[in-house]
Amino acid sequence: MKIKLDTKKIYLAMAEKGITATEIAKQGGVSQQAVSNALNGNRIGRVKVVPAICKALDLSAKEIVIIEA
């Protein structure tokens, strides 16, 4: 099972709210590099990254997490 993010939806929400990856990191208490890695598809990394993105963009994990078999 592979977990990845729906980056298209995330980048769209970021553009609509005018929020950068750095701002997501600050709001969520994670590093900017962790957010960047998750958004670039390199790896989701720490479990805190998904909640940080959800909180900053007012999205649920169900909206941005894709689970592949």
Tell me the CATH superfamily.
lambda repressor-like DNA-binding domains
Cα separation of the termini: 5 Å
- Main sheet overview: 2 strands, antiparallel
The number of strands is: 2
Radius of gyration: 11 Å
- Beta-strand level of the residues, as a percent range? 5-15%
| Overall pLDDT confidence | 89
Supply the CATH class: Mainly Alpha
H and E string: EHHHHHE
Query: Which structural category do the helix and sheet elements fall into?
Result: mainly alpha
Topology:
Elements: E1 2-5, H1 7-17, H2 21-28, H3 32-39, H4 49-57, H5 61-64, E2 65-68
Antiparallel strand pairs: 1-2
Helix pairs in contact: 2-3, 2-4
Structure, explained:
It is globular, with a radius of gyration of 11 Å. Helix content is 58%, strand content 12%. Helix 2 packs across helix 3 and helix 2 crosses helix 4 (49-57). The protein is mainly α and 69 residues long. It has one domain: Orthogonal Bundle (434 Repressor (Amino-terminal Domain)), CATH 1.10.260. It has a two-stranded antiparallel sheet.
